[in-house]
Design goal:
Radius of gyration: 13 Å
Order of helices and strands: EEEEE
Oligomer: single chain
Number of strands: 5
Strand content: over 45%
Structural class: mainly beta
Number of helices: 0
Distance between the termini: 22 Å
């Protein structure tokens, strides 16, 4: 099973996108693909180098990143057997 994060909002390359994690490798596809098994929901707000995350799995937390950005995203996290392949 691969971890899948379907996101809606401002800050990624497209308004709707899906990130797929395979071990330490990850890729993003420019479409919203709901995970087969939903494990939680989250809101992620990235302002400058601080990322504020409120999720149903881990509660509220703050992360620090190395680069500046601005994002406001709502996401659905879960797993899928056959997630989409990266676009080439």
């Amino acid at each position: 099973m691969k971890h899948v994060y379907a996101e809606v909002g401002y800050g990624n390359d497209t308004f709707l996108s899906t990130e797929v994690e395979e071990g330490t490798h990850e890729y993003r596809v420019p479409e919203f693909i709901k995970p087969e098994k939903i494990e939680g929901y989250y809101v992620r707000i990235w302002i400058g180098k601080k990322v504020y995350i409120a999720s149903t799995n881990r509660g509220f937390r703050i992360q620090t990143k190395n680069r500046n950005n601005f994002k406001v995203l709502f996401g659905i996290g879960g797993t899928s057997e056959n997630p989409p392949e990266p676009f080439i």
